[in-house]
Amino acid sequence: MLPYGRQSIDDSDVEAVTAVLRGDWLTTGPAVAAFEAELARWTGGVPCVSVTSGTAALHVAYAAAGVRPGDEVVTTPLTFVATAATAALLGARVVFADVQPDTGNLDSDAAAALTTGRTRVITAVDYAGHPADYDELREVAARAGARLVADAAHSIGAAYKDRPVGALADLTTFSFFPTKTVTTAEGGAVAVADPGLRLRAARFMNHGLVRDPAGQRDPSVGGWHQEVHAFGLNYRLPDVLCALGLSQLRRLARFRARRAELVARYGRLLRGVAGLELPAERAYVSPSWHLYPVRVRDGRRREVYDRMRAAGIGVQVNYLPAYWHPVFEDLGYRRGMCPRAEAYYAEELSLPLFPDLTDAEQDHVIETLTTILGQR
């Protein structure tokens, strides 16, 4: 089965991991700092805190932003459920706002209409690797007195109006799952410029521990002393995975270029195919394409999905609207809340996209898809 996404691993990755395994540190060592420093080169210098997954990154970001029971977090339903679930786990009420019909990104007007005095955070998702409209969302967040969070699980290395993802929101979260542009196997990170927010993020991902005597309530106990002032969790990303991530980041430009080449090729060869809508791209963004999401018209998405899979092509659907999951249905959320997101989901199909995808493999995907669409 040709997958819709796959990691790109070479000998440099293997050597980087092996070097850590032969060294003195498996976790909380020098590879962590090196990985975070390299990642910051892609965020315009905004410091980063590495964590164990993209889900952990969201949890850390919300905790650092001060999300508490009774707060509201406004976000898009067209995302993996973790974007909303991690806010709900902190006791927040998740408010789902509709998306732009072409990009699938959070619509700023829809978000603005749903903000209240309880809105603590507005979270955009860079769907498929295309940055959201951050200037408009920043204005919405400012009017609401809320923090702006960017879920950039798809968009590492991307830019919006010549500004890098990671420098566009108060807190930005990344994911390094194997299907993403850069992988640490499992892993994530939070980019945050504000020193106070960054300290809260760094403490929350490390049990809430305060090790600096300057911040302790009883610093005279001894050099071993550490304190917890607010509860946290163990979300530390180990050196062995940071070594893999550091090696991967050094090829990020190459990964992005090949993905862009494949996206352009899909665009040329699928343009004008009846019953198919290709992904939109704003003139002022430089995406990092994680997905290639087409929309299959005329109610044929399920048929095309089944027939592509039967042909050995592992297309995927991204994503079930978050509030359609039973856990949100049980909380009282109902279908029909975000009609544009639901319409997008009903037609979306992700075609294979990863750096090692060959032109011949892509040709096979295109030929199979166009043949199916031409048949009834």
TrEMBL record:
Coiled-coil boundaries: none
Domain of life: Bacteria
The entry's keywords: Aminotransferase, Pyridoxal phosphate, Transferase
Protein name, UniProt field: DegT/DnrJ/EryC1/StrS aminotransferase family protein
Pfam families xrefs: DegT_DnrJ_EryC1
Family affiliation: Belongs to the DegT/DnrJ/EryC1 family.
The keyword Chloroplast belongs to this UniProt entry's keyword annotation: no
GO molecular function: transaminase activity
Cofactor: pyridoxal 5'-phosphate
InterPro entries xref list: DegT/StrS_aminotransferase, PyrdxlP-dep_Trfase, PyrdxlP-dep_Trfase_major, PyrdxlP-dep_Trfase_small
Record flagged with keyword Repeat: no
